[in-house]
# Entry
Amino acid sequence: MKKLNNWEKETLNLIENVIDKNGYKATSQRREILYIFIKHNQKHLSAEEVYEYVKQEGIGLATVYRNIKIFVDLDILKEIRVDDTNYYELKMYGKKPLHIHFQCENCGCIEDILDQDIILEYLRINRLIEDKQSCEIFDMDIMFHGLCKDCIKE
Ligand SMILES: [Zn+2]
Ligand SMILES: [Zn+2]
# Structure
């Protein structure tokens, strides 16, 4: 594993504790896979993309799939399904806890909407839904589709 900065080290430790508490072992393979998500925490990665990063460490694609599934079950990773591909990102341990996604129909890029005003507006809607439906919301999955700012210019 490459050198970790402080935030990366702390995040990895936190996640290792979660793995441990749930009766799993934080094996070196799991740490390598988690490290990729921590290192690329601004991105949404498919299992194949993670595999491309870890294959030189001798980690196979099946291992990547198996461990990603465990991480999703443990709420460490969030799964985002687009067309036929699943993408993953760190859930609460990432630097961007709550956000909405936008996908460009032209270039396929997935962007995080992290704007503070939009997040506040979202939280307002969240509360409204809880009130009107008398329910409790734990998570959300919102994907907007359209053209990104680069593609709109073309
Ligand atoms: Zn685009
Ligand atoms: Zn995201």
